[in-house]
Write a structure and sequence with these properties.
6-stranded mixed β-sheet, Lambda_DNA-bd_dom_sf, Rossmann fold, DNA-binding transcription factor activity, 434 Repressor (Amino-terminal Domain), about 350 residues, alpha/beta, DNA-binding, disordered N terminus
Length: about 350
């Protein structure tokens, strides 16, 4: 028989929730605070009592007791055009949100592409506003990690960073190995002059993918640099064709740059993959929409976001973790462009 919600007169209290669930007040409090030190049966009973009584926690009172805000920040060191225009960021955000749905934590998003934006974000990242921070798409000159360490604020890197210390927590994709797979695949299919459209070299992800290319390429290194955008990929591809008109394959360090490279190759009257084979990196939706569909390296961006959030929750709760540096695998997705 289904128990119907029972509304008590006035605002339900935590004591009423505990009594309804048949547990102690401390157990009910631990469930509300997302503690793992609660049995599944007690957790289910408290959650059912909360729903039946219509209990709404007094967040201000909880903050005074727990010294927590139940809020975390995702800080992305990019412009809003990139954050809302590139599928990588949406994928990571979906993974973060999925993990936080299992906790009381609320997420807020901040973009810190300019010194003025960084200053505003730094001012807000205090213990009075958030319990922890997720950092994504950091550039080498970003001072935020040092600021957070000085304040004792729990944080997790999304991707390796020149500012990361051995004791920091981070989640990354094996970018170098993925790039190496791409170039080895091109060489294995007969390519002899393999170029790359590399990412920004003030970011570890750009350096790692270039290192993977260099570890695998057997002919001359043919390198042009882009900014992970479609326009940047087209510019770099045009520059490569001007310098090396007989290249026969290209590894682009992102799918958006690869889509720009495809456009530049079409403009030159070159066929893909008959004249030039192309491989990207990410396996974003744009890879399937390209003409021809893009062979690419799949990176698990949603898993990256989920693991970042899980590590941050452990840091906030001071729970032990098996591995503070998580490295996720990649794999090749074969389509028609190579």
């Amino acid at each position: 028989m289904t128990r119907q919600p029972v509304r008590s007169p006035g605002r339900p209290t935590l004591d009423a929730v505990a009594a309804r669930a048949g547990v102690g007040r401390g157990t009910a409090s631990r469930v509300l605070n997302g503690s793992s030190q609660v049995s599944p049966q007690a957790k289910a009973a408290v959650e059912a009592a909360i729903q039946e009584l219509g209990y709404v926690p007094n967040r201000a009172a909880r903050s005074l007791v727990t010294q927590r805000t139940d809020s975390v920040a995702l800080v992305v060191s990019e412009s809003q055009e990139r954050v809302f225009g590139e599928p990588f960021f949406a994928g990571v955000l979906r993974g973060i949100n999925a993990a936080l749905l299992e906790t009381p934590l609320q997420l807020w998003l901040a973009m810190a592409a300019s010194p003025e934006q960084r200053e505003r974000v730094e001012h807000h990242l205090t213990g009075q506003h958030v319990d922890g921070v997720l950092l994504l798409s950091l550039h080498d000159d970003d001072p935020l990690p040092a600021v957070l360490r000085e304040r004792g604020m729990p944080f997790v890197f999304g991707g390796r960073s020149a500012r990361a210390a051995e004791s920091d927590f981070l989640v990354d994709v094996d970018n170098a190995a993925g790039a190496r797979k791409a170039v080895e695949y091109l060489l294995g299919n007969g390519a002899r002059r393999v170029a790359t459209v590399a990412g920004p070299q003030d970011m570890e992800v750009g350096r790692a993918r270039l290192a993977g290319y260099r570890a695998a390429v057997t002919g001359p290194e043919l390198v042009e640099y882009g900014d992970f955008s479609e326009a940047g990929g087209a510019r770099a591809m045009r520059a490569l064709l001007e310098r090396e008109p007989d290249l026969d394959a290209v590894f682009a360090a992102s799918d958006l740059m690869a889509s720009g490279a495809l456009r530049a190759l079409r403009d030159k009257g070159l066929r893909v993959p008959q004249d030039v084979a192309v491989i990207g990196f990410e396996d974003a939706p744009v890879a399937r929409q390209c003409e021809p569909p893009l062979t690419t390296i799949h990176q698990p961006v949603e898993e990256m976001g989920r693991r970042m959030a899980e590590l941050l929750v452990c840091r906030i709760r001071r729970e032990p973790v098996e591995n503070s540096h998580v490295l996720l695998d990649t794999h090749l997705v074969r389509r028609a462009s190579a």
